Amino acid sequence: MRRTRGSRCAALIIVGWGGALCPRRNPNAPFDLWEDTDVLRLMGSRTTIMAKDALALLDHLGWKKAHVFGHSMGAMIACKLAAIAPERLCSLALLNATGGGFECFPKIDRQMISLTFRFLRAKTPEQRALVDLEAHYTKEYLDEYVGSCTRRKILYQEYVKAISSTGMQSNSGFEGQINACWTHKMTPKELDTIRSSGFLVSVIHGRDDIIAQLNHARRLAEKLHPAARMVELHGGHLVSHERPEEVNQALKELIKASKSKLRPEDWSYLPEEASGWLVLGMPMSPSVKSNEGASGLVAVYHLLGKVQLSFLYFIGVFLMGFQHMRNVLRIMKPVRVAASDS
């Protein structure tokens, strides 16, 4: 949270998944992420609850309006906040965002399978730090030298120190965040509320993000057209760390345009999709000749995309159901009671 001196509009920054550089118990965070998954099941969509928490925070601070910036899961919360109380926003910035649900599935390739396996087996801050670095940044960025050391070595020490100071994330916290991302959804009515509310939106994303895929961010920007501008930068999931100057410049332009009351039609920008990639790693708009063979190829191409998305959806439903049944059995498990001597 930050209020610039002389500015009428404060800035509310909502961080995402509890990570090394944004510890779960960071006292500077706007609010804590709940870890009680039983309460979560009773209360429903968690991103909606956290959006209401953010709104209550604005009320508590006496901020009538704010520029709202959200990253990753924090961007989901920011979207919900914009839909719940659009009159409280000066502008909205969504960094490395997706639409939730099956869009939370990362790009499936050898690197991601390896990262997932190592993430689930990570039991120490050192092991978790190695996984987080590869998931958050591009290899090019990590291998750059800063003085006599690579950035990978410097960040590794910072990550280990941060994780060690807060402790490893609990299983309930992990399950709660998974549930929040999986159940997050922006309805057409909510998207229409954001589009028609008059504030400007920036969707900022790293082209090499392996956690939140670029094509999902593009789709979100399209749904928010004409209020949204899509900004694509070279970088990974923490593109704000890899490209701080470019991200700051994009945010400054958003704030400046909001202050000048720029029309959404003059602000909106969506890049061409020719360089986009679907989950399969295939170009979004394959350049082929318009003949019968090409039409068949395009049809197969779209069919494969739908099959994979359906596969990811059912896998997600199966995993969520399996976890739910395991928790039910854990609760129903009988407890042995020692016989009384009397």
UniProtKB/TrEMBL annotation:
Organism of origin: Phoenix dactylifera (Date palm)
Signal peptide, first to last residue: 1-22
GO MF annotation: an example: hydrolase activity
Ranges that cross the membrane: 299-322
Limits of the AB hydrolase-1 domain: 50-244
Protein's UniProt keywords contain Hydrolase: yes
Name the UniProt record assigns to this protein: Aminoacrylate hydrolase RutD isoform X4
Keyword line: Hydrolase, Membrane, Signal, Transmembrane, Transmembrane helix
SUPFAM superfamilies, alphabetized: alpha/beta-Hydrolases (SSF53474)
Classification via Pfam families: Abhydrolase_1
